[in-house]
TrEMBL record:
PANTHER family: ALIPHATIC SULFONATES IMPORT ATP-BINDING PROTEIN SSUB (PTHR42788:SF13), TAURINE IMPORT ATP-BINDING PROTEIN-RELATED (PTHR42788). Belongs to the ABC transporter superfamily. Residues 7-234 form the ABC transporter domain. Keywords: ATP-binding, Nucleotide-binding, Plasmid, Transport. InterPro entries: AAA+_ATPase, ABC_transporter-like_ATP-bd, ABC_transporter-like_CS, ABC_transporter_ATP-bind, P-loop_NTPase. GO terms for molecular function: ATP binding; ATP hydrolysis activity. This is ABC transporter ATP-binding protein. Pfam families: ABC_tran.
């Protein structure tokens, strides 16, 4: 299993289409940490994740495992929100094996690895199905297995459960919460959902409203796993995060009204 890598962002600013989306972000993420990123819609969460993934260039320093990010790499795996992210012409197992096949891993080894990770996400019964034969939740499980099979040091998740119904979402949150305890990768998980962030995060970073979004707060979630939403300490964390985000959402609404 790959060990997680630390991530350092130093004075990171991101400009897209002539607009500065993110301004001067400094953030240190420890190896093996699970960090959740919350913030109002459009503030730049996905953009920041895409910069760490190496899909978008930025100003400032971005170090993963002490090395500057110069583009996408196998050390960083990305799970997208879209349940369409799998190759529709490949079976579940072939989708999960894909990255290993590209890297020339022999058939027996990649088949065993794919089955191991598919078992981990509860998809052993669906190895030979095609994506269109899966529910949205199953597709996201397959996507997670497809990323984890490469044993990345960093797993970047961009609202992976955003398109799922509430019950499936809760089940997958519990699964990721279990999985990350045996997986030593560093996780950054973008979400709109405050409870999702509290369920999963070692820390929750809240961003300010854009443009020129930055970090508003960093909250350490010092509660035992699995996290109980009825625990008064969790409710207190929820209130604090909700109130902080409400201020930022309000700024977005006022800016929209003024425009
Ligand atoms: N390629 C691009 N060119 C210009 N502007 C862009 C581009 N991609 C994103 N943006 C803008 O950057 C800002 C941040 O977008 P981003 O998707 O990162 O926000 P977000 O916080 O992830 O939003 P959401 O929570 O709604 O997914 C938005 O104002 C968006 O319109």
């Amino acid at each position: 299993m790959a060990l997680g890598a630390s991530i350092e962002l130093e004075r990171v600013s991101i400009t897209l289409g002539g607009n500065q989306i993110v301004h001067n972000v400094d953030l240190s993420i420890e190896a093996g940490e699970f960090l959740c990123l919350l913030g109002p819609s459009g503030c730049g969460k996905s953009t920041l994740l895409n910069v760490i993934a190496g899909f978008i260039e930025a100003e400032g320093k971005i170090l993963v495992g002490g090395k500057p990010v110069r583009g996408p790499g196998i050390d960083r795996g990305v799970v997208f929100q879209s349940t369409e992210a799998l190759f529709p012409w490949l079976t579940v197992q072939e989708n999960v094996e894909y990255g290993l096949r590209i890297r020339g891993i022999p058939k027996k080894e990649r088949s065993e690895a794919a089955q191991h990770y598919l078992r981990m996400v509860g998809l052993s019964h669906a190895l030979n199905r095609f994506p269109k034969e899966l529910s949205g939740g199953m597709r996201q499980r397959a996507q997670i297995a497809r990323v984890l099979v490469n044993e990345p040091s960093v797993v970047l998740m961009d609202e992976p459960f955003g398109a799922l119904d509430a019950q499936t979402r809760e089940v997958l949150q519990q699964e990721v919460d279990r999985l990350r305890r045996t997986n030593q990768s560093t996780f950054i998980f973008v979400t709109h959902d405050i409870w999702e962030a509290i369920t999963l995060g070692d820390r929750v970073v809240t961003m300010t409203a854009g443009p020129r979004a930055g970090i508003k707060s960093i909250k350490t979630i010092d509660l035992p796993h699995p996290r109980d939403h009825a625990d008064p300490a969790a409710v207190e964390v929820y209130r604090e995060l909700r109130d902080g985000i409400a201020v930022e959402v309000d700024k977005v609404l006022r800016a929209q009204q003024a425009a």
